[in-house]
């Protein structure tokens, strides 16, 4: 059964983590297409009219959704975009940082879908985008818990999509490769690693409203990764990893550039 169409012009869109990076690019693109956009962020200082939302808190997410519902009476599209990406050796990572990664990247999606989807189901239409990552398909040394969170995000999105496929509400997972945002600050990008801009991811997110595809990789050619991963011999995969320098998150991080972002995560973990 096809999902009910959602016209972008006039659609009410809620975006978490919308003050910068992928979230801001997405909010701006939806607004340019005529949508009514409500931005939520833990630190909304950089976004005019943004609402404060802690996606790890059921109460905070509920208050964010409640405000949007009070203003506009509905949410047509939810973009679960808020995320964190600490780097470092798995055994040395602080427990609080690991918990925060799972809380934001997994529980943030759970809280958002549980807060918004009942209203969508009641109306018989709606669309949810969970911003995951290609790190939910392939492992990267130095990102173990982040990998775990994004594998969970991909599986959660697929499971919820299937469970509610007959309600008129769709769930799509968007899986970017390395993105030039502050999450990747201090990490050498390129050099064989597919790298995209926030605007590229925003176009994929907005495009999902029309396609309603289950998974959308950015760039699109990475959609064949599952087949490659399943069929390529392990020695070949290891050679490929070596050629692109897949350990750079452990060995080549510019700590002075990265420090400000890591401090932001640590502050969130202490809350």
TrEMBL record:
One of its GO terms (molecular function) is oxidoreductase activity, acting on the CH-OH group of donors, NAD or NADP as acceptor. PROSITE patterns: ADH_SHORT (PS00061). Keywords: Oxidoreductase. SUPFAM superfamilies: NAD(P)-binding Rossmann-fold domains (SSF51735). It comes from the Bacteria. NCBIfam families: PRK07825.1. Belongs to the short-chain dehydrogenases/reductases (SDR) family. PANTHER family: PKSB, RETINOL DEHYDROGENASE 10. This is Short chain dehydrogenase/reductase. It comes from Mycobacterium gallinarum. The lineage of its organism: Bacteria, Bacillati, Actinomycetota, Actinomycetes, Mycobacteriales.
